[in-house]
């Protein structure tokens, strides 16, 4: 199979895994690239087609449905092929004839000759108009928020949730929606006690992070004469688990918890929802430096294994337990506790392109119930004077401000701390009782953080 066809086959294989097996694209894509022997140069194109198609799925389906006559009975394999082709035609600078020909060949390989003729006819209809022309046609009769949903390819409920969280109107929300559709840079982290920042910055083709003192960003080739791998797995220190792949927003919330002032000696630190282990690796190294032991809890065995791998070279006294944190009992109280709670993930849509289509408004109530339970458990485990860091990778108000407000109302022996002193590089206003990072402003995932101290 020639490389041009291979890149599209990678995208198709990942889409099928996502839609038929509920797989996560960021976990499936590296294996798909390896299985088909895609070169480092062509891996970038395969990645763009894969993630772009997943992000733009709602938009692409609207255009496909306008051009196809039998959408109700369309096989999932054919729809995924059409999505791959339509994304190239509408959102990439690939000549139309090349996009159509290669996608028709893909359809013939995975769905047969009859399907390839159908795909050819639909793609030629799509290619007859630009994306701007399709947008104008499909926007007729829609409300302003429905037009935004079509233009930026988000579910309407997600747009409204993001606008509420970031206090945006339907004009200013555009910058956040656009940022969520941009490919996220690959951020690396020097795990404290496992690698040094100097070692990280000595790697070729990286630049220092914007916000985190532990971070570096992998540079992408900017032209045909610049050829180097952009795959973290090609870095030896990453394969050895001493340097990790982690968004700077995730690094910042872990550092904030580690840096907040606590009176008295440090003995015990706890991560209650540790999988897959990125924040745990930061906290474990810093706990050892502070003279404390470190415990990581994770209820899913496979994710607990990832935590153990992340802590493979970590110093100090540490343990990883496969356990639901709500059932954890301890003979000691903890100085610092991280509650990185399961959430809708609406702040990490750059890195999880399929998440916007998987989540539904009905997911929010059970998640908020779990978040409250985890925070309540943390309040029972933290010592007087200790701090709980409540974190989500979602800005949704029900998962953030409401959770913290309800917790403080029920627990008058806790107070919310000013976040600005522990993250001075962000230049937050004094008295900021929480942190809500913005993908369009900070160029990180949309992390939320509240630091809650037990006072009595």
Automatic annotation (TrEMBL):
Methyltransferase listed as a keyword: yes
The GO biological-process annotations, alphabetized, read as: regulation of DNA-templated transcription; RNA methylation
Known PANTHER family for this protein?
A: NOP2 YEAST -RELATED NOL1/NOP2/FMU SUN DOMAIN-CONTAINING, RIBOSOMAL RNA SMALL SUBUNIT METHYLTRANSFERASE B-RELATED
Q: Name one GO molecular function term.
A: RNA methyltransferase activity
Put simply, this protein is called Unannotated protein
The residue ranges of the SAM-dependent MTase RsmB/NOP-type domain are: 176-455
Coiled-coil intervals, chain numbering: none
Could you tell me which InterPro entries the record lists for this protein? Answer: MeTrfase_RsmB-F_NOP2_cat, MeTrfase_RsmB-F_NOP2_dom, NusB-like_sf, NusB_RsmB_TIM44, RCMT, SAM-dependent_MTases_sf
Q: Could you list this entry's UniProt keywords, alphabetically sorted.
A: Methyltransferase, RNA-binding, S-adenosyl-L-methionine, Transferase
Q: Which organism is it from?
A: freshwater metagenome
**Leader sequence residues:** none
């Amino acid at each position: 199979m020639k490389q041009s066809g291979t890149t599209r086959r990678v995208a198709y294989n990942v889409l099928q895994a996502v839609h038929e097996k509920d797989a996560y694209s960021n976990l499936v894509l590296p294996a798909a690239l390896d299985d088909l022997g895609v070169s480092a140069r062509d891996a970038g194109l395969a990645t763009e087609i894969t993630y772009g198609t997943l992000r733009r799925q709602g938009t692409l389906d609207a255009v496909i449905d306008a051009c196809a006559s039998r959408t109700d009975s369309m096989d999932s394999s054919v729809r995924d092929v059409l999505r791959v082709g339509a994304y190239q035609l509408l959102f990439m600078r690939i000549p139309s004839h090349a996009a159509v020909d290669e996608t028709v060949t893909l359809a013939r390989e995975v769905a047969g000759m009859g399907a390839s003729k159908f795909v050819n006819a639909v793609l030629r209809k799509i290619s007859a108009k630009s994306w701007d022309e399709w947008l104008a046609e499909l926007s007729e009769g829609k409300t302003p928020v429905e037009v935004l949903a079509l233009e930026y390819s988000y579910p309407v409920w997600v747009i409204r949730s993001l606008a509420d969280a970031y206090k945006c109107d339907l004009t200013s929300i555009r910058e956040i929606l656009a940022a969520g559709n941009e490919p996220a840079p690959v951020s690396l982290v020097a795990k404290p006690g496992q690698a040094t920042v100097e070692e990280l910055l000595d790697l070729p083709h990286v630049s220092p992070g914007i916000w985190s003192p532990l971070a570096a960003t992998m540079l992408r080739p900017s032209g045909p004469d610049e050829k180097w791998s952009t795959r973290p797995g090609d870095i030896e220190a990453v394969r050895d688990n001493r340097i990790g792949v982690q968004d700077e927003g995730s690094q910042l919330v872990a550092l904030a918890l580690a840096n907040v002032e606590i009176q008295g000696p440090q003995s015990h630190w706890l991560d209650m929802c540790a999988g897959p282990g990125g924040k745990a690796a930061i906290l474990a190294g810093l706990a050892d430096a502070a003279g404390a032991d470190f415990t990581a809890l994770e209820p899913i065995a496979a994710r607990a294994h990832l935590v153990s791998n992340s802590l493979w070279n970590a110093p100090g006294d540490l343990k990883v337990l496969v356990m639901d944190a709500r059932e954890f009992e301890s003979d000691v109280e903890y100085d610092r506790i991280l509650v990185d709670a399961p959430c809708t993930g609406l702040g990490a849509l750059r890195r999880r392109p399929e998440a916007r289509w998987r989540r539904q408004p009905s997911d929010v109530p059970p998640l908020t119930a779990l978040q409250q339970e985890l925070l309540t458990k943390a309040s029972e485990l933290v010592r007087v004077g200790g701090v709980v860091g409540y974190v989500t990778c979602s800005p949704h108000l029900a998962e953030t401000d409401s959770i913290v407000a309800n917790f403080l109302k029920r627990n008058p022996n806790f107070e919310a701390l000013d976040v600005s002193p522990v993250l001075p590089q962000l230049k937050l206003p004094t008295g900021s009782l929480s942190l809500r990072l913005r993908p369009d402003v900070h160029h990180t995932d949309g992390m939320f953080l509240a630091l809650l101290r037990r006072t009595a």
